[in-house]
Design a protein that fits this description.
alpha/beta; Isopropylmalate Dehydrogenase; Rossmann fold; two-stranded antiparallel sheet; 12 helices; 12 strands
């Protein structure tokens, strides 16, 4: 039976994961999907309990699991840990990605019609909404390149990419475009300055010969950052390297109205994946009921789609979220047009009810 590792994490992580698990149970029951759950500590919670943000027990569970369901990690108190390799983001998230070979990060950024007024862009720029998929390479580039050091007044980070790394993430982007309504890819790099970007652009262009049915364009990262806020509808699938993808996917998320709406999937070979919301742990609102669980709930849909191969259950969650938003239900971060603000748990209630009513 499929094993899902549940890593609740820090801050609002435990409460948003709880709503995600409720929605997972409802969708799985409706569509006959079977799974088992096993929990472990990660991030600051793990550091507090064991002295390490990714304990051996958690590593072992992650290696056994078919999918990892993660809340969020980190917070200001953990930024003060003297050893940066013991801070939650660097000591847990990056090693998890490397350990599991999760090289492809998929981050959908969709503007729902019912949330159009929450978009910070002019209405004429986003009329009719937009649906962007950022495909980010996740285990190369500056985040993992060696040497990496900070000695005295000098710090060094090294950006490294191999052709094979570019090829495999490019295939993910082209395959994704083939099944999307837009059906085209824009590859983002800095080929006018960086050698790694020249390799990137050359490799993407050469591989495109195998996917000639998918239109391909290239754009420099600074131009892409401007284009996202000037005309986001010009993008369908954005393909890019680790650092650029980190920045551009957050920018794409923000113009949908709230980071609380954006899920993500980090995938490796064979369907194994890590699924988490795109936002952070928000310790300032932890325990207040103000957290928006929808990004986490939509990450459950991605988990069902990619790791459990349960497309019908995934679609039922996505349709439930859309119907709940269309009905005017809002958490605090998206309550721009509603006098009624739901708590994190109440929003979970609404999504579960919408699934059960399908």
């Amino acid at each position: 039976m499929t094993l899902i590792a549940v890593l609740r994490g820090d801050g609002i992580g435990p409460e948003i994961v709880e709503q995600g698990l409720r929605v997972l149970e409802a969708a799985a029951k409706k569509h006959g999907v079977e799974y088992t759950l096993e929990e472990a500590l990660v991030g600051g919670a793990a550091y507090d309990a064991t002295g390490h943000p990714l304990p051996e027990k958690t590593r072992e569970l992650a290696l056994r699991a078919n999918a990892i369901f993660l809340g969020a990690v980190g917070g200001p108190k953990y930024d003060l840990i003297p050893d940066p390799d013991l801070r939650p983001e660097r000591g847990a998230l990056l090693p998890l990605r490397k350990l599991l070979g999760l090289y492809a990060n998929l981050r959908p950024a969709k503007l729902y019609p019912s949330l159009a007024a929450a978009c910070p862009l002019r209405p004429d720029k986003v009329e009719g909404g937009f649906d962007i998929l950022v495909v980010r390479e996740l285990t190369g580039g500056l985040y993992f390149g060696q040497p990496k050091s900070w000695i005295g007044n000098k710090a060094v980070d090294t950006c490294v990419y191999e052709r094979s790394e570019v090829e495999r993430i490019t295939r993910i982007a082209f395959e994704a475009a083939r099944v999307r309504p837009g059906g085209f890819v824009t590859s983002i790099d800095k080929a006018n300055v960086l050698e790694t970007s020249r390799l990137w652009r050359t490799t993407v262009t050469e591989l495109h010969a195998e996917y000639s049915d998918v239109p391909l364009g290239h754009m420099l990262v600074d131009a892409a950052a401007m284009a996202l806020v000037k005309n986001p509808k010009q993008f369908d699938v954005i393909l890019t390297e680790n650092l650029f993808g980190d920045i551009l996917s957050d920018e794409a998320a923000e113009i949908t109205g709230s980071l609380g709406m954006l899920p993500s999937a980090s995938l490796g070979e064979g369907g194994r994946g890590l699924f988490e919301p795109s936002h952070g742990s928000a310790p300032d609102i932890a325990g207040t009921g103000k957290a928006n669980p929808l990004a986490t709930i939509l990450s459950v849909a991605l988990l069902l789609r990619y790791s459990l191969k349960a497309e019908a259950a995934a679609v039922s969650i996505e349709r439930a979220v859309e119907s709940v938003l269309a009905a005017g239900h809002r958490t605090a971060d998206i309550a721009f047009d509603s006098p009624t603000v739901l708590t994190c748990e109440q929003m979970g209630d609404q999504v579960v009810a919408a699934i059960n009513q399908q």
